[in-house]
């Protein structure tokens, strides 16, 4: 049972990792006019990604200093995912498995 819970948490963290990476790449493509926000598909994807990540980003953005156009929130979240996945979960579940 503990292993199934561990695997579920790892899969959810992996999905969140890729959502953040895809959102960052999409924002760069939009910023450099490679893709057009006028496209319904691009706009729908960006709104969906924003709605998925906003609940995670907003508390971190309140804490972090304003750096102008540079948003380091995704990097902080990715670092947090990495720490949870490699430093917190294995010791937590090693005693349960």
> What Rg do the Cα atoms give?
16 Å
Instruction: Give the termini distance in whole angstroms.
Output: 8 Å
- Low-pLDDT runs: none
Percent helix: over 70%
Beta-sheet strand percentage?
under 5%
How many strands, what sense, and barrel or not for the largest sheet?
none
Approximate shape: elongated
**Structural class label:** mainly alpha
Model description:
This protein is mainly α. The protein has one domain (1-95). It has 3 helices and no strands. It has helices at residues 2-31, 40-63, 73-94. Helix 1 (2-31) crosses helix 2 and helix 1 (2-31) runs antiparallel to helix 3. It is elongated and about 50 Å long. 1% of the residues are buried. One of its GO terms (cellular component) is membrane. This is YggT family protein. It comes from Sphingobium scionense. Pfam families: CCB3_YggT. The chain crosses the membrane at residues 15-35, 67-88.
């Amino acid at each position: 049972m503990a292993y199934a819970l561990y695997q579920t948490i790892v899969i959810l963290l992996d999905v969140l990792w890729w959502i953040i990476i895809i959102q960052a790449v999409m924002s760069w493509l939009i910023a450099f006019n490679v893709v057009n926000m006028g496209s319904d598909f691009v706009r729908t994807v960006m709104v969906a990604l924003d709605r998925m990540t906003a609940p995670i980003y907003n508390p971190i953005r309140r804490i972090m200093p304003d750096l102008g156009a540079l948003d380091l929130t995704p990097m902080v979240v990715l670092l947090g995912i990495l720490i949870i996945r490699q430093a917190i979960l294995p010791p937590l579940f090693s005693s349960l498995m």
